[in-house]
Amino acid sequence: MASTSTSAPALLSQHVHDGKSHLLLCASGSVATIKIPNIITALSHHPRLSIRLILTAPAAHFLAGQAAEQPTLSSIRDLPNVDGVYLDEDEWAEPWKRGGKILHIELRRWADVMVVAPLSANTLAKMAGGLCDNLLLSTMRAWDTTGLIDGLRATPDAAAEQADGRAVSVTARKVIVVAPAMNTAMWSHPVTKQHMKLLEGEWNVENGGWIQILRPVEKELACGDTGSGAMADWKSIVKVIEEGLGLKSSGST
């Protein structure tokens, strides 16, 4: 069951300038979804961080209280810094009328960074093809890839310069970080290679784009196969989030 209210889009607008860093943490249908609580808990010591989650319907099945490492969504909602959990049905909880807020647009405006961990084979394929048939994909498809709508954001280095009274010269578009996770055969499939070629090419932050990729690692997967395809270690994902938002790492004093 979702933990948001029908007024969620309006509430998001009120919190855009709340003085906090905004993490839009998302999960699609992969077993690695069970690492979401670890990521949130590791970020719990940051007092000026606000986290909102988007879960696809398949992802939500992995967090239904069936094991200690798979708590319920209501339990996750109570974790520190979590200010909202969104499912597909929250998008149009009430019939829309002119002037009403649209959830996937408001989430995009609110977010400083969007992290999709895990990014399943299905969601990767839809992302590469521009499909947007759920809340997560609609938010990705509505992302401001140019920086002309939501404006450019100061990078963490630039923010530090500003705090020191120095001139700020480094700005960037908001980034979507993706951590693919899938069966080894899925990862090595020629279709996946084509999708990744797009994400690692024109769309990649290193080439002036808006996508940062955390490639899968090789290990024994939950299905029993051994090989590449497992999601990057959740601790490395936490580190990327902290670096991207200019937060001190868990190991900092």
Describe this structure in words.
- The structure is a single chain.
- The protein has eleven helices and twelve strands.
- It is an alpha/beta fold.
- The strands form four sheets. The chain has a six-stranded parallel beta sheet, with helices on both faces.
- It is globular and about 50 Å long.
- The N and C termini lie far apart (38 Å).
SSE topology sketch:
Elements: H1 8-14, E1 21-27, H2 36-42, E2 49-55, H3 57-60, E3 64-67, E4 70-72, H4 73-77, E5 82-86, H5 103-110, E6 113-119, H6 121-129, H7 135-141, E7 153-154, H8 156-163, E8 171-172, E9 175-180, H9 184-187, H10 190-199, E10 211-213, E11 217-220, E12 226-230, H11 234-245
Parallel strand pairs: 1-2, 1-6, 2-5, 6-9, 9-10
Antiparallel strand pairs: 3-4, 7-8, 11-12
Helix pairs in contact: 1-5, 2-11, 5-7, 6-10
Protein name: Phosphopantothenoylcysteine decarboxylase
Family: Belongs to the HFCD (homooligomeric flavin containing Cys decarboxylase) superfamily.
Organism: Rhizodiscina lignyota
Distance between the termini: 38 Å
User: Any idea what the radius of gyration is?
Assistant: 18 Å
Largest sheet: 6 strands, parallel
In the CATH scheme, the class would be Alpha Beta
- What is the string of SSEs from the N terminus onward? HEHEHEEHEHEHHEHEEHHEEEH
CATH topology: Rossmann fold
Look at the helices and sheets and give the structural class.
alpha/beta
What portion of the residues fall into strands of 2 or more residues? 15-25%
Which strand order does the major sheet show?
5-2-1-6-9-10
CATH superfamily, by name, is Flavin prenyltransferase-like
What number of structural domains do the residues give?
A: 1
Number of helices: 11
Mean pLDDT score: 89
Number of strands: 12
* CATH hierarchy: architecture: 3-Layer(aba) Sandwich
Shape: globular
